Amino acid sequence: MKRSSSIGLFFLYLFSFSVLAVDLEEKPSEDVAEVDDASSEFSMADIQQLELEVLDEPPVIDGDLTDRFWASSSILSIDLEMYPTRFDKSVVDTDALIGMTKTHVYFAFNAYDPDTSQLRTAIRENDGVKEDDYVSVVIDPTGNLRKKYEFRVNPSGSKADVLQNTVSDRYIYDWDTEWEATAKITETGYLVEMAIPIDSLKSPKAEGEERNMWALILKRSYPRKIDRTMGGIYIIYPPNPVSSQRIASSEGGEITFENATKNLEIYPYGIYHSSEKRKYQQPFEQREEIEEFDAGMDIKLTINSATTIAATVNPNFTDVEADIARDSINNQFNVFQPEKRRFFQQDMDLYSTLMSLVYTRNIIDPDLGLSVSHETKEYSTGFFWSNDEETTVIIPDNLGSDKVELDDLDSQSVAARYVTAAGGSAYGAMVTQRTAGDYKNSVVSHDGLLNLGIDDKLRYQIAFSNTEYIEEFGDDICEEDDCLDIPEDVYCELGNCGTTSEVLRASADETLEGYAAQIKYRHTAPKSFITLNYYDISEDFRGDLGYMTKADYRLINALYGRNWYFETFSGDEGKSRARLYLSATQIENQAGAKIATMYDIWAEFRGSYQTVFRPGIRTIERRVNRLNQNSLELKGNAPRFDESYIQWYFETAPVTDWTFNLDGRYGEIADADNIVLGDMAEFKPRVRYQIGDFNIDLQHTFRDYDFEDEKLYGEDFTTFTVNWRPSDDRVVRFLVKWDETERDLNRWRDPSEKSYEREVEIELTHTRYVTKNLSLLTGFKFEREKDNTIPRDFTNDRQFYLKVNYNMGFIGN
To answer: Got the DSSP string for 538-603?
Structure first.
C-alpha cells in the first residue's frame, strides 16, 4: 500500500472530532464524538486502496443483499475500534460492500450482533439517529479536507446526513440531500443498503491523466454498556462522474441514458393554506398577509456533477416550522433558527465560515433566488442572489440584539465565496451584500485554516463592512413613537424609555464602517487539550446577511482539559472516562470597559449505560443592561453583577427503549430586563420512549427567578411529540406545545409588560409518499394565546394545509 501523509492527516483529523467548541453562553456541547487515545502500532501504509469500475443493473434498495450487483462489488470491512480506544480491534464484525453505477455510489453493510435484543433503534425523524446503533459512510470527494459528507442509517432504516465543514470547524446537521437507504434486522444483526447520488457529493471531474480520489471512512456506532465507535479507512479511485440523479418515470422508477452529462431537477409544489385568526367572541377570518392558495418550485441543473445552477420561485415553509427554538425572557440575544429550505440548504457548507456571515434565515419571504456553485479538486466557488419581499436585519450590541422586521420593504441579498485547500490547510474569501431602497450593507472577508500538525489547528477570519441604515430601521424597533427624536443629553431610564441600545446602533445619520476578526487555536492531544479564542468586533461592524448578534467588543478565552480512564461498573472494561475543563474568559468593549470576566470549571463522566454527567461551576462578573437607554456608555451606566451558579447535564439510557435527561442550573444570576441579581432555579427534564412504530418525546423547562426572597418571574415550557411511522411511505406526527410566563408586575421594571402569557399549540401532520417522486403533506394546527389575567381575553389561530410536492428530473447530453 502507498504511504500518504495527506491521507493520514485526513484520517486522524476526521476521527479526532472537535473536543470542545467553547460556548461562552452555555455548557459544552453534549453531541461531540471524540477519539482520545492513540496507538503507535497503526501504520498509514495499511490503508487499502480500491479502483472502482462502473457496474450495470443497480441493486434494488430493499435490505436484501442477494442482488447480482453486490456479487460484483468490492468487499470492505469495519475492523478497528476508534472510540473509546483508538485503533483497537473491533469487538463486533461488520462487513461492507461498495459499488458504482454511472449515477450513484452504493453501499451495503452486514452488521453482526451477538444479541439483537440490545439494538438501540427506532423509526426516527430525519437526522435523529445519533444516539442509536447505526452504520455510516463518510466521504471526502476531493481528498483535500475542505468538506466531508456523512450518511448514517440505523437498523430501523432511519437516516441522517451531516456535512462536515473542516475550514469553519462545523458539523452542519441542517444540511439535507436526496439519497435512499433501507435496513432490515436479522437473527444475526442487521443489514443496510444505501444509494447515494454522486451529485450529492459534488465530486469534481478529474482532468488529464489525474484520477479521481475519494477518502472514505466506514463507521459503526455500537452503544451498549459503553459507547463504542468502530471504523475503517479506504482510498477510493472512482471513474469520472457523469450524473447522479435519476429521471422519474410515471411508475416512480428510474431511467438513465448513456453518456449523460446534464441533469435537470424540478421540484414544484402547490399548497392550500387556510390560516385563520380570531379574538374572543369574534369570527375566524383568513389572514390578509397569507395567501390561501400558493405555488412555487425549486430548480436545479447539475453539469458534470461538480457544477450546479439552481433557482427558486416562492419557496415555502409549511413543513419545516413546527419546532421554533425558544429561550428565556432573560436572553437578550436573537435565537438561532435552522434552515430547511431546499434552495438554501444545497450550498450552505460553502458559505459556512468561522464567523457566521451568511445566515439565510434572515431571508424571510423570497419570491426569486438564483445560485451557482462549482467544485474542483483544488477549490470551491459559489454565488447566490435572492429577492425578499420582506427585510429582516439583526441589529447587534455588546449586551443584546434586536431584529428589524419590515414586511413592506423588498430586499436583495448577494453572496460570493471562494475557498481552496491543500495539505490540510485552507484559505478563502467571501463577499456579501444586502440592499433595500436606500439601505445597504456590504462585507468582504478572508479566512483560513492552518494545519500545524495532527493535533494542532489554527483558524482565523477577518472582515470589513460598510453600512448605510435608513430611519425605518430605528422606527421599527422603537418601543414608543418618536423615540428617534430624544436628545442625546436626555436621561432615559430603562422601563420608561422608548429607545434602546439597538436603536442607537441603527442610526441613519452616518455611514458605518467597521471590522471584525476572530482567531481560534486548538491543540488536541490523547490525554489533554487546549483551546485559545480571540474575537475583535468593532463598534460599527455589521454583518447583516449573517448571524452576527454582537458588536463593539473584544474577547479572550483560554481553555484546558484533561482526560482519565477507569472502571465503574463491571463490563465497561475500564473505558469509562472522566474529564476536567478549566476555562477563563474576559470581554470588554472597544473603549476598554469590562463587559464580563468569567471562570468555568467543568467535570465530565462518560461511562456505562450511555451515561453522561457533566457538572460545572461558573463565576462571572458581568454587565447585563444599561440604566440610561439613551447612551451606549458602560462605565457608570451598566452596573456589574457577581454571578455564581452551578450547571449540569445528565443523560442515561439504562434500557434500550428509554432515555432520560436532566439539564439545569442553580444559583445567583443577573436579570437583564430589571438589572437585578437574583436566584434562579432551572430544570430541564426529558424522557424519550420508543415502542414499535411509535416514538414518544416529552420535555419540559421549568425556570423560577426570585429577587429579594420573592418570585420575580417564572417560565414553563412543555413539548410533547409523538411520531408514528406505520410504513415506509407514511409518517404521522402529533405535537403539543404549552408555554407559560408569569411576572410580578409590582416588582417588574417595565410597566408595559404583561403579567401573564400563555401560548398553546397543537399540530397534527400526515405525510404520504405516493411514489419516490410524489409526496402529499396534510396538516392541522391550532394555537391559542392569552396575554393577561382576564379570563375571557384570548386569541385563537387555526390552520389547515395541503401541500403537494413532485420531483421531476430530466437528463440530457
So the answer is: -TT---TTS-----SEEEEEEEEEEEEEE--STTSTT-EEEEEEEEEEEEE-TTS-EEEEEEEEEE
Looking at the DSSP bridge assignments, the partners of residue 735 are 721, 763
What does the CA dihedral 741, 742, 748, 751 come to, rounded to 10 degrees?
80
Over the stretch 367-398, which tens digit does the pLDDT of each residue have?
999 999 998 888 899 999 999 999 999 999 99
φ, ψ for residue 58, nearest 5 deg: -60, 155
Compute CA distances 482 → 240, 500, 785, whole Å: 64, 13, 29
What does the alpha-carbon distance between residue 192 and residue 189 come to, in Å, rounded to a whole number?
10
The whole-angstrom distance between residue 121's C-alpha and the CA centroid of its chain comes to: 22
Vertex 360: Cα angle to 803 and 733 (nearest 5): 35
Q: Cell 495532527, residue?
A: 454
Residue of 190, 203, 114, 116 lying closest to 153 (CA atoms): 190
What residue type is assigned to position 335 of the chain?
A: V
Residue 372 contacts residue 309 (beta carbons within 8 Å): yes
What per-residue string of b and e applies to 9-31 under the rule 16 or more CB within 10 Å gives b? bbbbbbbbbbbbebeeeebbeee
Query: pTM of the entire structure?
Result: 0.83
Rounded CA separation 142/164 (Å):
13
How many CB atoms lie under 10 A from the CB of residue 253? 12
pLDDT digits (tens, 9 = 90+) for 690-734: 887 888 999 999 999 999 999 999 999 999 999 888 887 888 999
CA distance linking residue 537 with residue 552, whole number of Å: 5
**What does the pLDDT look like over 184-194, one tens digit per residue?**
999 999 999 99
Distances (CA, A) of 275 to 315, 621, 787, 795: 18, 47, 21, 13
Q: Which three cell numbers stand for residue 92?
A: 463486533
Q: Where are the alpha helices (DSSP H) in 137-229?
A: none
Q: How far apart are CA 276 and CA 289, in angstroms?
A: 11
Q: Residue 617 to residues 580, 583, 591, 684: CA-CA distances in angstroms?
A: 12, 11, 30, 18
